[in-house]
């Protein structure tokens, strides 16, 4: 396997400092063993998320200097709108402060109480918005996506039979849209094939159902199509991305990932009526339809980032840096989700800590132990993230994982070596790791602010 060198040179640096294990033990206790609550200055290598943690380019920083901070009709808004129209192909664009702002708008304008929203595996904020608006999320991803050891090139694909069965069971009139993640975060950053997207669109169109993408990591998905799907090896990332989007009626976008900025997002649509409904709500929750919670300079940086994300050398290095970490861990026998996805390496906490039951929160415990060992911050993606159902019972996802999420253009291969060494060291003494229990549990999206303590 060839791991390409960084397709950039470093112009500015930020100092990071290693803390002592004693310091980290105290920090962890004060944070309630929740890595979200650890102060960033106490983190050595931060793999909590790739959301808003990218390093911007010199061109993006330069573009921020032409920020037009007008309340209405900012010049930067027109640049962002034009970039979305050109690169993604959607006519109507509603800017938001980040992706969940777009999810909120989409859910409010399309979901009625009692509706069903199928999707290729849940995402935390997406499902919460669906449920808060009276909808019910239904998982229609292929079964293999829930099985970490199975290797498939497109493990994020929609199971077309599951989708059709849901339509037959509840009726198409109760399914306003299908939500397709490209890629699928909770499955390990797994991509969806172009063939599958095409067939999802065919079924949906036949039944009068809209197709809405969670396009947060769509450039990563386009790379996997180029790498793995016959007929696309000679096509550019831009060409593949445009075809992908042609099979959607709209998308939500967190610009904090593939658009290479630290804040911002949008809802993109083809339907004028839906667009008008969204713009009437965006002024309530976000701001004017020409800024939607973003400063002009942030819109300009996002417009620039959208074009930069299409560069093959950038996205090849991005994918293969993640793969480098995954390969190192796999070669050492560490249980991970396979194949390695686009934005993170996911440790399989069930196999890593088989002595802990899922009620003992193994992924949360493992993420805490990684921080304690090396100052590397990661994130739980298991029972804590899954939350509770409408009856207040814990959901038990088949995947119980720790996400090692790689920010874009931030760390080097040497940093990945440090991460790998820490995880491998912990695996050698895994039987000593104790489970956790809740001390405080918020009612919604509990993983962000919950607090825990070790089980004695």
UniProtKB/TrEMBL annotation:
Mind telling me which PROSITE patterns this protein's record contains?
Answer: BETA_ELIM_LYASE
Q: Which cofactor does it need?
A: pyridoxal 5'-phosphate
| An annotated GO BP | tyrosine metabolic process
**Keyword S-adenosyl-L-methionine belongs to the record:** no
Family matches, as Gene3D superfamilies: Aspartate Aminotransferase, domain 1, Type I PLP-dependent aspartate aminotransferase-like (Major domain)
Taxonomically, the superkingdom here is Bacteria
State its Enzyme Commission number(s).
4.1.99.2
Q: Which family does it belong to?
A: Belongs to the beta-eliminating lyase family.
Known partners and oligomeric status: Homotetramer.
* Protein name according to UniProt: Tyrosine phenol-lyase
Source species of the chain:
Defluviitoga tunisiensis
């Amino acid at each position: 396997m060839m791991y390409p060198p960084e397709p950039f040179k470093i112009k500015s640096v930020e100092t990071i400092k290693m803390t002592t294990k004693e310091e980290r033990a105290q920090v962890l206790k004060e944070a309630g063993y929740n890595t979200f609550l650890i102060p960033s200055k106490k983190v050595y290598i931060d793999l909590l998320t790739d959301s808003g943690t990218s390093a911007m380019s010199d061109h993006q920083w330069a573009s921020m200097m032409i920020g037009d901070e007008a309340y209405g009709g900012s010049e930067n808004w027109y640049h962002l709108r034009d970039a979305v129209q050109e690169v993604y192909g959607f006519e109507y664009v509603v800017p938001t402060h980040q992706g969940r702002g777009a999810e909120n708008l989409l859910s409010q304008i399309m979901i009625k109480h009692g509706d069903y929203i199928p999707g290729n595996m849940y995402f935390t904020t997406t499902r919460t918005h669906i449920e808060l608006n009276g909808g019910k999320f239904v998982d229609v991803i292929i079964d293999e996506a829930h099985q970490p050891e199975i290797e498939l090139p497109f493990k994020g694909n929609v199971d077309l039979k599951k989708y059709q069965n849901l339509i037959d069971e509840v009726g198409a009139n109760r399914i306003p849209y299908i939500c397709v993640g490209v890629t699928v975060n909770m499955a390990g950053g797994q991509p969806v094939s172009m063939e599958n997207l095409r067939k999802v669109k065919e079924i949906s169109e036949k039944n009068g159902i809209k197709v809405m993408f969670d396009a947060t990591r769509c450039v990563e998905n386009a790379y996997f199509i180029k790498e793995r799907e016959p007929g696309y090896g000679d096509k550019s990332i831009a060409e593949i991305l445009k075809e992908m989007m042609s099979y959607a009626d709209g998308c939500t976008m967190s610009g904090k990932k593939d658009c290479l900025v630290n804040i911002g997002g949008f809802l993109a649509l083809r339907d004028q009526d839906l667009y008008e409904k969204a713009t009437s709500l965006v002024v309530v929750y976000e701001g004017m339809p020409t800024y939607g919670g973003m400063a002009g300079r942030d819109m300009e940086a996002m417009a620039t980032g959208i074009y930069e994300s299409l560069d093959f050398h950038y996205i090849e290095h991005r994918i293969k840096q993640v793969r480098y970490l995954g390969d190192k861990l796999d070669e050492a026998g560490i249980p991970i989700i396979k194949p390695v996805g686009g934005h993170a390496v996911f440790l399989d906490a069930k196999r890593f800590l088989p002595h802990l039951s899922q009620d003992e929160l193994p992924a949360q415990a493992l993420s805490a132990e990684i921080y304690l060992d090396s100052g590397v911050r990661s994130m739980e993606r298991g029972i804590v993230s899954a939350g509770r159902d409408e009856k207040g019972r814990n959901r038990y996802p088949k995947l119980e994982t720790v996400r090692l999420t790689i920010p874009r253009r931030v760390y080097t291969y040497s940093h990945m070596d440090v991460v790998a060494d820490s995880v491998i060291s912990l695996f050698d003494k895994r039987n000593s790791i104790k489970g956790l229990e809740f001390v405080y549990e918020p009612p919604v999206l509990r993983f962000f602010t919950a607090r825990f303590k070790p089980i004695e």
